From TrEMBL:
Protein name per Swiss-Prot or TrEMBL: Protease HtpX homolog
GO cellular component: plasma membrane
Gene3D superfamilies: Metalloproteases ('zincins'), catalytic domain
Gene source species: Streptomyces hainanensis
Cofactor note: Binds 1 zinc ion per subunit.
Localization per record: Cell membrane
Length: 297
């Protein structure tokens, strides 16, 4: 990782390494089962999986931006947003990412990209309308810390592995590759079973990593700006405004929760086990303690 002035987090690094190790192990098991099951047709699976992984890794930033309706903006088009990103990048001593705006009333922000040089930071029009300048800087510092710590790339790869667990097994079941009358019943049971196990475990692992990385980004962003209270204020304001957003808009944004600053919820009472973010209370408590620590002589 290129060095920046964002506070390093060894706990985050260790969790990313362990998550990728276990997901890679699960992925090897899944592909191994499919290769055995498909017999001579296994090269097709390898080519499909490899091609999709390459496309997801190299074009993840464009895919995410397109899916959210984000458009890159110039300093002339969004001077305040660019100015905030410029100040934070200078403060953090890191390359400036591309800057985008998504035209939606859902107040949120996200960062994506496989590295600092290919990263993109996006804020929604709903967020820009609602936040004060210091609150916006707190949110952007949070998102830039994801880029600096490279957990954006790890989350992109991790989410891809879970999706592939379902996709490649559907291909096998739909096409019936490698089946014979003798092993058809066994394949019908084995392939979906392995796929379900891999998907569930990968889902839970990515959720655990996602919750920790949000706490890490809160801390790193608040330390960089020196204003945890501004980030806490932005969190409170954004979370409070979610209930006023039309349900249809929240449902459209919900698939991107793992990459958002705050989750866009279309329902109530999501289990903490399934949530992509820590609770608002937990995040505010951490920021409050950090603010107290920074205020001590």
């Amino acid at each position: 990782m290129s060095r920046t002035r964002f506070a390093p987090d060894r706990g985050l690094t260790n969790r990313m390494v362990l998550t990728m190790f276990f997901l890679g192990l699960l992925y090897v098991v899944l592909v191994g089962v499919l290769i055995v099951a498909l017999g001579k047709s296994w090269p097709l699976i390898v080519v499909i999986v490899g091609g999709l992984f390459f496309a997801q890794f190299w074009f993840s930033d464009r895919i995410a931006a397109y899916s959210m309706g984000a458009r890159e903006v110039t300093p002339e088009q969004a001077p305040e947003l660019h100015g905030a990103v410029d100040r934070l990048c200078a403060l953090a001593d890191m390359p400036k990412p591309r800057v985008a705006i998504a035209d939606t009333d859902v107040p949120n922000a996200f960062a994506t990209g496989r590295g600092q040089k290919s990263s993109l930071v996006c804020a929604t029009t709903g967020l820009l309308r609602r936040l004060e300048p210091d609150e916006l800087e707190g949110v952007l510092a949070h998102e830039l810390s994801h880029v600096a710590h490279r957990d954006v790339a790890v989350m992109t790869i991790a989410s891809f592995l879970g999706v592939m667990a379902g996709l490649i097994t559907r291909i096998a079941l739909w096409t019936g590759l490698g089946r014979s009358r003798n092993n058809q019943n066994a394949l019908l049971l084995l392939v979906p079973l392995v796929s379900a196990v891999v998907y569930v475990i990968s889902f839970l692992l990515t959720r655990l990593l996602s919750r920790y990385r949000e706490l890490s980004a809160d801390r790193a962003g608040a330390l960089l700006t020196g204003r945890p209270s501004a980030l806490a204020s932005a969190l409170t304001k954004v979370s409070g405004q979610m209930s006023r957003i039309p349900t249809r808009d929240l449902r459209q944004a919900e698939p991107f929760n793992a990459f958002f600053f705050a989750p866009a919820l279309s329902g109530q009472g999501l289990s903490r086990l399934l949530s992509s973010h820590p609770t608002l209370e937990q995040r505010l408590e951490r920021l409050g303690k950090l603010s107290t620590d920074l205020g001590r002589p």
